Amino acid sequence: MTDKPTLGDKLIALKERSGLTLSNIAKAAGYRSPSSIQRYFSPDYDAEYLPGSLAAKLEEALIGYGDPLIVRDDIVRLTEIGFMLDRQYIHPARVDLRRRVQTEYTCSGTYPSGSYRGEAEEFVINDAPLAAFAAPAHLALRHIEALYVTTTSMAPRYGLGEVVFFDTDRPASIGEDVVVWLKSAVYEDSDTNRVAILGRFVGRSRAGVEIEVLTPPSRFVIEAEEINAVMPILAARELLPDA
Questions:
Q1: Which of 40, 61, 94 is the C-terminal boundary of a domain?
Q2: What pLDDT, in 10s, does the model give residues 38-57?
Q3: Among 17, 28, 60, 226, which residue's beta carbon has the most beta carbons within 10 A?
């Protein structure tokens, strides 16, 4: 009989799954050095659950990495909510691990901002909403956003001025169209702008993700350290309730 894994063991497993070093995680989480979080990533760390403040920072550092991709639920399961669920103190049906219920989707404006290594058009998502759409009940527990297309990298699939909806929680699968949120020195400290590209998710490795665009046709790899998130674009069948 094996010992039950400690909370530290679970964090180590997430780190290994992400492919990131402790230094990478500490930097992305806003810590000055890996020594600030080293004690948590140890088999000896046997707390009952993660402090909420630490969990929030680890979400920023780990979500979107790994194979399979790490999602918010993987982190929340290590917090007090997961602790209570495991001990059946609360019923799973009464808990939304994403901790958000949407009544509407906000649609953001975008504008072209240059080129990603000459391979695809970059654009800036301005988070000040231009419009809103009522969220259907079957998607109320998912965090979905929308944007206006202002680049031609995925034309004719997505034309200028079209609205695309994307899921910021669900991990993208190979073969899906995606919004890739890039890390940008220009908007690194901005809460209202995000630099991104549209493309098709065609592969992944420890080095990064492979993206395909249609106009002009191209395939290229975006390194993991350049990515904030890879967010799947919802197909029409996902937006519509089951008949």
A1: 94
A2: 999 999 999 888 887 888 88
A3: 28
Distance in angstroms (rounded) separating the CA atoms of residues 213 and 198? 8
CA-based nearest residue to 233, from 191, 194, 181: 181
Token output for 107? 């649609």
Report in angstroms the alpha-carbon separations of 72 from 4, 99, 229: 23, 10, 12
pLDDT digits (tens, 9 = 90+) for 83-133: 655 554 444 444 444 444 567 788 888 999 889 999 999 999 887 778 887
Q: Residue 88: what pLDDT?
A: 45
Determine the residue type at 66.
Answer: G
Bridge-based pairing state of the strands 104-116 and 120-134 = antiparallel
Cβ atoms within 10 Å, residue 113: 20
Burial state string for 131-153 with b = 16 or more CB within 10 A and e = fewer than 16:
eeeebeeebeebbbbbbbbbbbb
Fill in the DSSP letter of residue 233.
B
Contact present, 200 and 180 (Cβ < 8 Å): no
Q: What are the C-alpha distances in Å from 96 to residues 58, 158, 166, 208? A: 19, 32, 19, 30
Please say whether the beta carbons of 113 and 122 come within 8 A.
yes
Using alpha carbons, select from 31, 42, 58 the residue that is nearest to residue 6.
42
Residue 2, in any domain of the structure: no
